[in-house]
Amino acid sequence: GGVSIVTQELAAFAKYSYDGLGKRIRLTEIGSYANATFQLDVLLLFKQGFMYKINNKDRTCFKKHLMEDFHPLAIPNDASLVGQAVLGSTSVQGEGLLVNTWTAKYLSTVTEFGCFPVNTLVSTDSKAWVLVSFYNNIMGIPDPQVFTPPTFCKGVQLEEEEEEDKHSFLYIDKNVS
């Protein structure tokens, strides 16, 4: 599927693959942060506790400890239903999408049938808003190979932690209130 994120300083778009049972995510991302563009390809393997930053052009790979917890694309058990709405129109059959909006730590909208994510609205500690929109969702995993590091990552050493730019989908939870 696809996902986009918009904040005051960040606009990013990514192709994503998601495996909730295996706790794996692959993001191939492009965006703009503080008027500079960036590209990022990451493989997040939460069960193993590692992330790979992959550069297919240069055929380089960095392996780091994954410090974040896995956040499933699911409605939390403690969420409350805000309401139901139709995106689009109810005037013509097939021209609308029935969605449910839930609130807990985030405000999340999902499809009524299939519970596919549509968008999530997050408030940060700095009282800014983060909007994450999902599109072209696919049920299942069309290509399981996306969760396997490329061959040039084989044997790569674990990198020491360093300060890095926090301008990616990876960091939207860092300052969530």
TrEMBL record:
Please give the GO cellular component terms listed in this UniProt entry: extracellular region; lysosome
| Record-linked Pfam families | Ependymin
Source superkingdom: Eukaryota
What is this protein's name?
A: Ependymin
The GO molecular function terms of this record are: calcium ion binding
Species source reads Oryzias sinensis (Chinese medaka)
Signal peptide (from-to)? none
Example of a GO biological process term: cell-matrix adhesion
| Family, per entry | Belongs to the ependymin family.
